[in-house]
Amino acid sequence: MNPNSSEANIFKLPDPDNWYCKVISYPYAMTNLKIQADHPDGSVLFLEFRNIVYFSGWLSWKGIRFRVTEDEELLQFVRTTTSHFDALTSRELLSPSKLGVFKLFVGQGSENTSIRLIANAARSLDRAGQILVEPLTVN
After folding, report:
1. Domain residue spans in the chain?
2. Are 9 and 65 in contact (CB under 8 A)?
3. Long-range CB contacts (within 8 A, 24+) of 127-132
4. Mean pLDDT of the region 126-137
5. Nearest residue to 1 via CA among 67, 45, 93
6. pTM for the complete prediction?
7. In angstroms, rounded to a whole number, what is the distance separating the alpha carbons of residues 51 and 9?
8. Residues contacting 110, CB < 8 A, separation 6+
9. Residues 104, 68 contacting (CB under 8 angstroms)
């Protein structure tokens, strides 16, 4: 997939390469992750990922192109990242759990910065907490 395609901008943000992002909340229980995104024009918004089971990446970066992978990419990522799930079949890994269906989110920033999260929901919010875009909610 072309990282510059619209599919790599699931939050449908204008000028996605110029947002400055930082993780502002990833509590001890590590179930939810919140990212603050600031644009040079003064715009501020937040990205929330819920029921996180995996996170890898920088705590701050520039660029906010996120995409949701296909199931095959999720399976390949899980199989090459950890042996924890080796006993499970692909079907079992993709089946809904008590927390819902999990997806791999890949964020691509500038200078080859990448973020990877496995979660079951994501959304963007304005400063008042109003949902702007909810590209995936699977419960």
Report:
1. 6-137
2. yes
3. 127/44, 127/45, 127/46, 132/11, 132/45
4. 88
5. 67
6. 0.83
7. 21
8. 17, 61, 62, 63
9. yes
DSSP 74-129: HHHHHHHH-STTTTS-HHHHHS-BTTB--EEEEEE-STT-EEEEEESEEEEE-TT-
Give the number of residues written for the chain: 139
Return the number of other C-beta atoms located less than 10 Å from residue 134's C-beta. 14
What does the alpha-carbon distance between residue 14 and residue 33 come to, in Å, rounded to a whole number?
Answer: 22
H or E element that contains 23: strand 20-25
Residues 29-50: tens digit of each pLDDT: 668 999 999 999 999 999 999 9
